[in-house]
Specification:
- The chain contains seven helices and 26 strands.
- With about 475 residues, it is of the alpha+beta class.
- The structure holds 2-acetamido-2-deoxy-beta-D-glucopyranose (NAG) (4 copies) and fe (ii) ion.
Length: about 475
């Protein structure tokens, strides 16, 4: 009897947490626009007016806690000024910071002058205006700093992956901007410029920088790399991985004591965000492995209740595309994700949407014989949002039958939002691009793994005491 009551209690609580066991494969088939890149002369890639006017403006968090921003941009004609003027009221820039400028070649392609400028010592929850460039060609933008790192501060993140530069990408970007989220967690594969050859690779990095500027100049995008950033081009003598990406996109990796811009962590509002590189060594003894082991001990759930991990290659995904490519990272890191109660892991790579239940497969090793993921309340939710809309098109073939761990899957373009309410609750949405209109499709309440579980444990204890009393008195 006690056993029965217990089992039904556990079953009931898991349903309440959005864990009903039957997954959904959505039959919705999006009538997509052709997966071709927007032509070069399209206004989405418009070059700003004026001699040497700054273009491809983008910002990212510049420190561990959210009181610094890195402003980056490209000047096409000459190096120009690397200064950012900034202040808290429009047109009154009382402070200034000096950045660096560099240029690079990729085959025959010669880049413009790439500026990165760290703007630090900012106040929390403050709107800053900033100006870059000089004279008639200068340009002004603004951003808002996040609230101080505290456990109950609300914050809204957007999650975008595998964006590219097609009309579907544009639709995703515009829908994302309507969501009023405050920061993008980007899960890799930015421009898809590597699909071009020779000088066109650099050219398509430039168009992508201009394409996303309407968002990236005003709010931080937290960058992560994918396979399309590797750019291994022996045919034109370019064999050093991530060259274009590392020149153009910076990350605050030193602030989390990482030894590489490709993996790092930040704290923002009530979230601790860990960025992992699927295409850098991560097995035991490698720098990334050692760094993650240390970073996980720095996570303080009393300060940042939400622990979010970003990677490019999904660990749980049942699409035919890139099937099991994430398995090697699962073997190395899954037990840590469970031990440290990661709330949610976002990945891209597969060009379709999929969400898992809380599952793990840590019992599986080459002698155990156990080889199927099992429900695991301590495990993260795994979400794949590689559906930004790039030129490779959708990955529409899912494995059949849908595995038990898969909660929802659909081959449509879109983006996600994660709206943190307080230390226990966050509201998650996946928003499908439905032929130009934004449609919220998959949504659920994400209960915090650290605070939610403590609460549940107390409830369970209370419940068991009552049952034992009842059994004893009957
Ligand atoms: C950078 O630009 C300068 C001209 O300002 C040029 O002389 C130099 O070759 C460029 N370097 C690279 C790596 O393209
Ligand atoms: C990084 O290391 C330095 C020196 O050991 C230390 O002072 C700093 O607190 C560390 N940063 C983090 C985020 O742990
Ligand atoms: C592998 O599985 C066996 C059998 O279940 C277990 O005894 C052993 O501890 C496992 N090894 C590791 C490294 O997990
Ligand atoms: C946290 O947010 C949820 C959803 O908005 C709400 O129901 C709950 O009462 C909040 N908890 C606290 C402690 O404020
Ligand atoms: Fe990818």
């Amino acid at each position: 009897m006690l056993h029965f009551v217990l089992v039904s209690f556990v079953f009931f609580t898991s349903i309440r947490d959005g864990c009903a066991r039957k997954g959904v494969t959505s039959s919705f088939v999006r009538s997509e626009w052709p997966s071709v890149d927007i032509p070069l002369d399209h206004e989405a890639f418009a070059v700003p007016n004026g001699h040497n006017a700054p273009q491809q403006v983008h910002i990212t968090q510049g420190d561990y806690e959210g009181r610094a921003v890195i402003v980056s941009w490209v000047t096409p004609d000459e190096p120009g000024s690397s200064h950012v003027q900034f202040g808290t009221s429009e047109e009154k820039f009382h402070a200034s910071a000096k950045g660096t400028v560099s240029n690079y070649t990729l085959g025959e392609y010669k880049s413009g002058y790439i500026h990165h400028c760290l703007v630090e010592g900012l106040e929390h929850s403050t709107k800053y205006y900033y100006r870059i460039g000089s004279g008639d060609s200068s340009r002004e933008f603004w951003f808002e700093t996040p609230p101080k790192v505290e456990p109950d501060v609300p914050y809204k993140f957007g999650i975008i992956g595998d964006l590219g530069q097609t009309f579907n990408s544009l639709s995703t970007l515009e829908h994302y901007m309507e969501s009023k989220a405050q920061t993008v967690l980007f899960v890799g594969d930015l421009s898809y410029a590597d699909r071009y050859k020779y000088s066109d690779v650099g050219l398509r990095w430039d168009t992508w920088g201009r394409f996303v500027e309407k968002s990236t100049a005003y709010q931080p995008w937290i960058w992560n790399t994918g396979n399309h950033e590797i750019e291994y081009f022996p045919y034109m003598g370019e064999v050093v991985p991530f060259k274009s990406y590392l020149q153009r996109y910076t990350t605050p990796y030193l602030a989390s004591n990482s030894s590489s811009p490709l993996w790092y962590a930040i704290r923002r509002a009530s979230a601790h965000i860990i960025v992992l590189s699927s295409y850098s060594p991560y097995v035991k003894y490698t720098p990334q492995y050692k760094w993650l082991a240390e970073e996980l001990t720095r996570v303080d759930r009393e300060k940042t209740p939400w622990l979010i991990v970003l990677m490019h290659v999904p660990i749980y995904n049942s699409n035919e595309a890139h099937y099991m490519e994430g398995e090697s990272m699962r073997v190395v890191f899954e037990s840590w994700f469970i031990k440290y109660k990661v709330d949610v892991i976002f990945a891209g790579h597969v060009h379709a949407y999929e969400r898992s239940y809380r599952v793990s497969n840590t019992d599986y090793n080459i002698t155990s014989g156990m080889r199927y993921p099992v429900a695991d309340k301590s495990a993260p939710v795994y979400i794949t949002v590689g559906d930004g809309g790039n030129q490779e098109g959708l990955a529409s073939r899912f494995r059949d039958p849908q595995p038990e761990y898969s909660a929802y899957r659909e081959a449509s373009y879109g983006h996600s939002t994660l709206e943190i309410k307080n230390r226990t609750h966050a509201i998650y949405h996946w928003n499908r691009n439905d032929d130009g209109k934004k449609v919220s499709t998959d949504s659920f309440i994400l209960h915090n793994q650290y605070w939610g579980n403590n609460r549940r444990r107390r409830k369970l204890k209370h419940f068991l005491l009552k049952v034992i009393e009842e059994v004893a008195s009957s």
